[in-house]
Amino acid sequence: MFSFFKGKAVLVGFYFLFLLLISNTLLAFQSQKTVKLSSIYNDLITSNQSDLYYEQMYLIDDITDPITPDKETDFIKRLEKILGKKVPTDSLGILTQVDRILFNRITSEFINLEKVHLNGLDLLDSKIETLDFNELKIDSVVLDSVNISAKFTIRDSHFGEYSDSRNVYQRYEIYNTVFRKHYLITQTVLKGEFWVFDCTFEEGAYIGPMYNATFGDFTMEGCIFEPIDSSIPVLMEDLSPDSLVFKTQAYFNLFGEIYQFNVSDTDFQSNGDEQYIFIEGGFEYMGFEGNNVASQFFPQATVTKQLTMSENEFTGNVMLAELILGGQNNHVNWEEIQGFKMGKGQVWETLLVNTEISGLDIPEELVNPLFQQTGDLVITTYRGLTDEEYEDQEAFQELISSYYRLYKIYKENGQIQDANHVYVEMKDVQLRQLAYMNKTYGGLENWIQWRLNGLLKFYTDHGTNPAKAIRISIFVVLLFSIFYFFFPSEWDTKSKKQLLADYRLFIEKNDHGYFKPFMKLLWGFFKSLVNAITLSLNSFVTLGFGTIPTTGLARYVCIIQGFLGWFLLSVFTASLINQVMF
Tens of pLDDT along 493-552? Predict the structure, then answer.
């Protein structure tokens, strides 16, 4: 009986809690006043105040019809028709004395803000189904804690500093918009697509939403990233006793369920400074195509199904050591990367999270500007070009590993030529390090490794070109043949001196001219040359003589040639097998 009444009490408690929630919701709804968007535009035109505040309201867009938005294409004409008066405008948009607008706790089904020139626009703690920004010119935009359940679109606008944080979007699209200062999106949840087309970022971008979608898609196309002008120096004693400037031009910090990440036809410009394109996240498909990349390209991402990198122009370094590939059908165009553009990116610290860095002292007023300049990252590039870099064995091996990742991609795809080219460049990088080790530390082993790798490069392009080995072998055989030609051999019945003597005697006894003696002399020299070539070939392939059929210096040269031939033919055989069994 007690348990029965206890259960009844719980049900009654839940019932009253439900009624309380419903009543609070109704009171909140009733407390919201309904405002038309045209009245806000009327305030913009008529108000003498510098700031306008709109809070706790239900906003109705009575200017633009979301069903047929192109019914009347001229926004100003539509607004004038509703207001019943002339709307003052200039080339920037609607003329107003208002400096800033703040929207707080706004509810709406559809809002289209268009043709407004302001210093600031804040949209906070609001719920909107569809939000459009069209032809806006605003120096500072802040969106915070906004839930847009259908789509957020920005078109043909011009912004200064843009901050987007703690929002929830179903779909986010930006077209033909200029961001004169830093673009920031962080702690924002995306439930669908994020598209950016034909936009310009003049002072970098931090793009860090969290995806929560069954089909997460990030696409950027036709954009321009200008060099970051900000140059705030940072002292990091672990890297240098002097202050250094770090710049992250584009930071794509994307996590969650992302189906595809694609950046195409985008221009990442540089003014000579090291500026980084840093990509972090996990994707099923990743595409990076048709881009002009003068900055340092550093993807630190996981791609589970397919990576495509093609038709890009890289003038900065490409750092793939931290790129994890799970698929088998990846495509990377080697012609875009070749020429020792490969590097190894090193992320040393996050500046503003770890303020305990040795020697780091960031004044409070520089925290935000420094974040905008660096994306909170300290990144350097390891290229394997200087003596100091050769001493860092761990970084050097990671650089070699990045080459090997590409080698595996080409080998899995059956791209034999590209695999050979990337392998040759990888071995060339190793050869430079071996030269440094020999110069710095000396020793017979270092010298042998350096010279042996140099010979392998010269003879077979590090085992990738057996045809080159045959060509060089033929040249070696002929070169030794010329030497043997001037030395006596058991296979020559007459020496060269005797052939010349016979030629003179034959001419003296022959009254019919010089042709027949000359042909006899030529035939003798030809047989001697054939014998020299045979001797050279026999020595090179080390078939064996029993006794060496020559005397003097030539006998010892035969032994040297035999050892050289044995070594070169072994290298040729390994190179041939390597290509046949590819």
Answer: 555 555 555 555 565 556 555 555 555 656 656 666 777 777 777 777 875 555 666 666
CA-closest candidate to residue 512, choices 523, 522, 520, 501: 520
Answer yes or no: do 460 and 478 share one domain: no
Task: Identify whether the C-beta of residue 319 lies closer than 8 Å to the C-beta of residue 402.
Answer: yes
Handedness of CA 380, 385, 386, 389 (dihedral sign): positive
Which residues, 6 or more positions from 108, have their beta carbon under 8 angstroms from its beta carbon?
58, 59, 60, 61, 126, 127, 128, 129
Does the residue 371 lie in any domain?
A: no
3 state SS of 287: strand
User: Do the domain assignments include residue 523?
Assistant: yes
Q: What is the DSSP string of 78-95?
A: HHHHHHTSPPPEETTEE-
> pTM for this structure?
0.81
The closest of 344, 356, 393, 349 to 375, measured between CA atoms, is 349
Q: Is residue 317 within a helix (H) or strand (E), and if so which, with residue range?
A: none
- Domain range holding 415? 387-464
CB 433 within 8 A of CB 535: no
Pinpoint the alpha helices (H) of 141-186: none
Question: pLDDT digit string (tens) for 45-66?
Answer: 999 999 999 999 999 999 987 6
Using CA atoms, how far apart are residues 134 and 175, in angstroms rounded to an integer? 10
Task: State residue 488's pLDDT score.
Answer: 67
